[in-house]
Amino acid sequence: MVLASTTASALQAAGFIGIWDTDVRAGRSMLDSGAASLMAGDPGLAGTPLPLDAALGRIHPADRDWVFGRIRHVRQTGGPVSLEFRVVTGASEIRWILNRGCLTPDSDGLLRGRGAYIDVTDLYRHGIQSGAMNGAVNSPMNGVTHGTTDGADLNTAADHGIQIHAALERHGDPYLRSVSGMLLHGIGRALARRDP
């Protein structure tokens, strides 16, 4: 078994698109060629520091405001980020994207972020995304809505969850970090599915 080809195959099967690296102070993100191609619409932008509008140039207009708001928020607070949103490809196809990463202080104390984009469209097409399975808030696939529709409770939960996760990372217990990470992932997915 050749591990490199197995890893590449696993990433492809998981829907891996590409990675991002954000310099929060500069307000710029760099994408690899896969991310630049799908998210910004131009693989030639790979490795170029881009403002948020350019780095996420193909985001669906209905998702733009809330996604940019969550990104701006995590750029102020630091911590993990997990968002699901839609992009519109050059062929006008809608793709569902999971953006997962973390913003942490570098050796100089300045926030930097790193993460990945994963195409989860197949989960929506087959009706097996977590919202359909768990009856999540405002799932576009199952039409189920619980709680408030403005997302204020989810935003509050996300803010508290980020603080909890950061404290548990400082504490160092791997199990508790994992549990808080799963909670944040679930909150991020619910935020991504809410009606904008």
Secondary-structure topology with pairs:
Elements: H1 3-13, E1 16-23, E2 28-31, H2 33-40, H3 52-55, H4 61-77, E3 79-88, E4 94-105, E5 111-119, H5 121-125, H6 130-134, H7 152-171, H8 174-193
Antiparallel strand pairs: 1-2, 1-5, 3-4, 4-5
Helix pairs in contact: 7-8
Task: Tell me, rounded to a whole number, the average pLDDT.
Answer: 80
Number of strands: 5
N-C termini distance: 46 Å
What kind of assembly state do the chains in view correspond to? single chain
- What is the molecular shape? globular
H/E order of the elements?
HEEHHHEEEHHHH
Helical content class: 40-55%
Describe, in plain words, how this protein is organized in 3D.
Residues 130-149 have low confidence and may be disordered. It is built from eight helices and five strands. The longest helix is centred in the last third of the chain and has 20 residues, at 152-171. α7 (152-171) packs antiparallel against α8. A hairpin with a 5-residue loop joins β4 and β5. A five-stranded antiparallel beta sheet has the order 2-1-5-4-3. The protein is globular and about 45 Å long. It has 196 residues and is an alpha+beta fold.
